[in-house]
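Q: Could you fold this chain for me?
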Amino acid sequence: MDPKLSTAPKPSGDNPGPADDVEDSGPGPVPQGGGPGRIVLAATPIGNAGDATYRLIELLTTADIVAAEDTRRLHRLVQNLGVTVAGRIISYHEHNEAAKTGELLDQVRGGKTLVMVTDAGMPSVSDPGFRLVEGAVAAGLTVTAAPGPSAVLTALALSGLPTDRFCFEGFLPRKAGERSSRLADLDAERRTMIFFEAPHRLEPMLRALRERFGADRRAAVCRELTKTYEEVIRGTLRELLEWAESNEVRGEIAVVVGGAPEREPGKPEDHVADVNALIAQGIRLKEAVAAVAEDAKVSKRELYSAVLAAR
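A: Sure. Below is the predicted structure, expressed as structure tokens.
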């Protein structure tokens, strides 16, 4: 990182110990003055420490409490940034969220500024933090964010796929049956889809995507984003699966998949059976025609005529 960014005091050089649930670091909390406390969700670099914002540095060096997904990773980050955390560091992750959330909310209620950071990227987005935000909102406490690096948006931007409409699906289920069911729900999804996946599960994931969406669907595998060995492989799902089968894939991975192509409208007479099926369920002819015509992208008038002609 550019040394000009490091305006806070340098670390003392003490070697941090193992991650504890609670540990003190630095000279103690910096007074924030009177008034209510607040929670700040602070995005951290997803690979390159140089992507840290000035605001993240300020928050880490002035907050009363820093809640970290992994305190060891936090220590490595601040060492790379050349700064010192002045407040109290608390370990806060998926295994202790339920037990720790109430305690943290009490601190904020008492006027403390709490900064939430995860291992990389934005807290609460496929990372710890949602339970804290949910509790704060319910309690009427202030929650804000210090935005920054995002693996989701970085992968989307680099994929070469449409970016005007997209959805984030996180990690697919590990079990084949559950994964297949989730993908079936996305059959008609027109937006670009973004997934996370572990390297050792990438091959079966791509195979499942190919089977569900078709071998020719465009996609991209983005690995080690912003890091030295960043790599973006673009192609069809068939090509990406062949690449994964012939390479030892490592690192943090995001998979971006193009949305479903627009269906061909077809002929009105092709959808007469669909209208009759709705009528058999008790739906009036006019309403059934309107529903099928909208879904099939055909003329309502022509479909209505086709239904009558078939009787």
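A (continued): The two ends are 75 Å apart (CA to CA).
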